[in-house]
Design brief:
Chain lengths: 175, 666
């Protein structure tokens, strides 16, 4: 089971009593991703920039000898991308890309804890009036007074939107 | 030990090799119909499949092969000639056997028509006497009763391995009338005797009408390591069992049967011993070596920064050992491309029949070695290209005659190492590509603008576009425009490139260029801004400094004059949109891909190191400038530049400059 599968299949989610999730903070908001997809949580390590990559996956890091792409969810949610601070962590997850399980890492401004989110408390994202692009949100949960955003990892990682044009297409535009 | 392999898998693997051997022998026989060694080779393959098939429960196979053998026996006895029609049926039989093995229980019925066709063609040629040489196939070529002196001795470990000499003796006796004598001359004293070892030898005087092959067949499973002599005797001499091979008449060399049987082992031993290893183990080994190389790089870095002399010495030693280990491991995975070429002979043979064109298939460079995985993935693309050559490239006999060409078209497949790449080329002497028609088709499909000026080589590249086909008719073989784009994608996924050259009326050559190794390469580390990048050293030609005048990009001339050649250069700082301040004196690394070169302007050259290539994930599939990533000695990730892409990009760059300059002049 991986993060993307659990979160896009809302029917199955409803059946489970609770969703075991890792909550993390991006800017002022709290996000939750399925704990089952999380592989490890690291302190910030040197990040290699990938020139001309989509802003969403601009980085590469070394996770115990493996080269893992580093994604910044803040890009997809239009948030400010502040540089890493003392609380910043890197969460390594396993996602499904075109049917292949792939390791990827996401930046988190802070990591909270692993918690259960009551299935009953999860509501669909409102179509209008929300700050965040609704297509990237599976649902909004509640824990105490806080709203927790459950991102649609499958959509986010599969999305082709936000691509920066490749070199050659740029050339074509210029000439 | 590892878990036991499923015995049927062992059979399937062996059968695959035997069928391969059979196919090659049949194809060779078409060219050399009177080569008795080839006939023998084909028969041995069939016979082994029959025996093993029966042993592993593949009864359909055993049955079909038996019937096939019986019918084909005419050929062996020299009563029938090898004709192209016969070879075609035999090949069909080979395919049928493969089917029976792959899907038992479903195809038995398809065997009957093949056997029928075989019988028909053989009765037709029965009247002609074959000139099968009297070598190892049949001594007298007749079925008269001959007496033979057979002496054999099994290797010492034969009993332990399950051979039962009694069964061999029984089989021999079943061939005719036999007298058997045991030879105990090699029995050791009882104190040193191993009860499980085979020390006895046997001599059998056999009178039979079955001929020599029947006798040889009895021992067919035991070729290696056993002593065997078979010699015919005059009837008068056969009275008392001779104590050894009779040397009465001029018989073929006594030791020959064992030797010739030994040289035809289906496991394909070329005289050296070889070992079958599961591919996953090799991959594991590669991974370990890769990790070792990374760790060794770290060690070297630490040693370089330390004052400890003994540490430095050891680090150097380890670097040397790691490098050697890397080379050896890579070598293990290298397989000669000839293994692929053999498959294509059958393809061309079938295509030639299907399309009614006479084709000569020439290969060279079979010894050229490539990584195992690369070879496997090349098979399909090469099939597609060869099909295209025969179907579209080569003209039919009439057209060729009109053009003054030989009736037989030639398809030439060659493989050669060029520096860091392997170049595999497929050429045909056919009609060549029709640039005008490609252009027309491309304009119709909206791929290019009607006024655009496009060089022929670039036009030819359009044939790799999905759905593109200039074929006027769709044959069963090609024309649907599906094959070539898959070819291109496969080659690109192997980090290779395809070039197409063609001369109208003379022919076409498609060249595949592939990087030699996939996993570990020697890389030159460079710095551009704050980032470090690795360039495959094998692609690097030289490094120069960027002089002030050349650095003056305002003039719009991004060219270097290298010993009279104009080499375009790319500023990686611009390409990578680096923010960091530039180095005062920039360096240029000149790299090449095939014939073309480009200079890469960097801030600093950092040195060479062994680089373990890690693939980029799908998330970075769209970034074409990089072919992979590597982990440096200090643990950070560095991207590996895709030289081929940069060179091609540099060429288009150069084109644009040239075109804009022409525009300015005009």
């Amino acid at each position: 089971m991986n993060a993307a599968a659990i979160e896009t299949d809302s029917g199955r989610r409803r059946e489970a009593d609770a969703m075991q999730a890792l909550t993390l903070g991006l800017q002022d908001e709290v996000f939750a991703i399925a704990a089952s997809g999380v592989r490890e949580i690291l302190d910030v390590v040197p990040i290699t920039r990938v020139p001309n990559a989509r802003p969403f996956v601009e980085g590469l890091i070394n996770v115990r000898g493996r080269v893992v792409p580093l994604a910044d969810l803040r890009v997809m949610f239009g948030m400010e991308r502040t540089p890493p601070g003392p609380d910043t962590r890197i969460v390594v997850i396993e996602i499904d890309l075109d049917g292949e399980p792939t390791l990827a890492a996401i930046l988190a401004d802070r990591v909270h804890d692993v918690t259960d989110i009551e299935a009953a408390s999860i509501e669909d994202a409102p179509r209008v009036g929300m700050r965040w692009p609704p297509e990237y949100v599976t649902g909004i949960g509640k824990r105490g007074d806080d709203f927790i955003i459950i991102p649609d990892m499958g959509r986010i990682f599969g999305d082709e939107g936000g691509r920066s044009p490749s070199l050659e297409s740029q050339e074509r535009n210029d000439s | 030990m590892s878990k036991a392999a499923d015995p049927t898998d062992t059979f399937r693997q062996e059968a695959r090799e035997l069928l391969e051997q059979l196919e090659q022998a049949l194809l060779d026989l078409e060219q050399n119909p009177h080569d008795s060694d080839l006939v023998g080779s084909a028969f041995r393959a069939l016979h082994t499949i029959k025996g093993s098939g029966a042993m592993f429960g593949f009864d359909e196979v055993a049955e079909f092969v038996h019937d096939f053998e019986t019918a084909f026996d005419q050929v062996r006895k020299g009563k029938a000639e090898i004709s192209p029609g016969l070879v075609t049926i035999a090949l069909a039989a080979k395919d049928h056997i493969a089917q029976l093995i792959a899907e038992p229980g479903r195809h038995a019925a398809a065997g009957a028509p093949i056997l029928e066709a075989l019988r028909k063609i053989l009765t037709a040629s029965d009247t002609s006497m074959g000139e099968v040489a009297a070598g190892s196939v049949s001594d007298a070529g007749s079925s008269a009763r001959t007496t033979w002196n057979i002496a054999f001795r099994l290797p010492e470990d034969a009993l332990v391995l399950g051979t039962n000499p009694l069964l061999l003796l029984e089989e021999l006796c079943a061939l005719g009338t036999a007298t058997v004598t045991a030879r105990a001359d090699r029995l050791p004293p009882i104190e040193t005797m191993d009860p499980e070892a085979s020390y006895l030898g046997w001599e059998v005087v056999l009178e039979t009408d079955q001929g020599r092959e029947a006798i040889e067949d009895v021992f067919i499973f035991l070729k290696d390591g056993m002593e065997l002599t078979i010699a015919p005797v005059d009837v008068e001499e056969s009275a008392r069992a001779g104590p050894g091979p009779a040397s009465s008449n001029g018989t073929p060399a006594a030791g020959r049967p064992a030797r010739s049987a030994g040289s035809a082992t289906p496991s394909g031993a070329k005289g050296n011993s070889s070992l079958r290893v599961p591919a996953e183990r090799l991959d594991e080994l590669m991974d370990r070596v890769g990790e070792l190389v990374i760790a060794q790089a770290r060690l070297s870095q630490i040693a370089a920064a330390s004052d400890d002399a003994s540490l430095k010495t050891v680090a150097e030693e380890i670097e040397r050992l790691a490098s050697g280990l890397r080379d050896t491991t890579m070598g293990i995975r290298m397989v000669p491309i000839g293994t692929l070429f053999g498959r294509f002979r059958r393809l061309v043979h079938d295509l030639s029949g299907e399309l009614g064109k006479q084709v000569e298939f020439v290969t060279s460079g079979e010894e050229t070695e490539l990584d195992k995985t690369v070879i496997e993935r090349l098979a399909d693309p090469l099939v597609h290209i060869i099909r295209n050559s025969v179907d579209h490239g080569l003209e039919n006999a009439q057209a060729r005659a009109t053009a003054g060409k030989a009736t037989k078209g030639t398809v030439r497949l060659a493989a050669v190492h060029t520096g860091a790449e392997v170049a595999i080329s497929i050429s045909d002497d056919g009609a060549g590509l029709d640039a005008a028609r490609i252009r027309q088709k491309a304009e119709e499909a909206g791929l290019i603008a009607p006024e655009a000026r496009i060089a022929d080589e670039d036009l030819y590249q359009l044939i790799f576009h999905p759905g593109f086909s200039t074929a006027r008719e769709i044959t069963s073989v090609s024309g649907r425009g599906v094959g070539m784009d898959v070819v291109k994608r496969t080659i690109e996924s192997l980090r290779g490139a395809i070039d197409v050259a063609s001369k109208p009326g003379e022919g076409t050559t498609v060249t595949l260029r592939l990087p030699l190794t996939l996993a570990i390469i020697e890389g030159m580390l460079v710095r551009v801004g704050k980032g470090r990048y690795s360039i495959p050293l094998s692609a690097v030609e030289e490094c120069v400094e960027l002089s002030a005048s050349e650095a003056d990009a305002a003039k719009g001339r991004n060219f270097l004059n290298i010993r009279g050649n104009l080499v375009p250069f790319l500023r990686l700082r611009e390409l990578f949109r680096t923010q960091a301040p530039a180095e005062l004196h920039q360096k240029v690394v000149i790299v090449s891909a095939g014939e073309q070169q480009v200079g890469l302007v960097v801030d600093q050259i950092l040195g060479n190191s062994q680089t373990v290539i890690k693939s980029l994930s799908k998330l970075h599939a769209d970034v074409e400038t990089f072919s992979g990533a590597t982990i440096l000695g200090d643990g950070t990730v560095a991207l590996i530049l895709d030289v081929g892409h940069l060179v091609r990009f540099g060429q288009t760059f150069e084109e644009r400059i040239r075109n804009s300059q022409i525009g300015r002049v005009a």
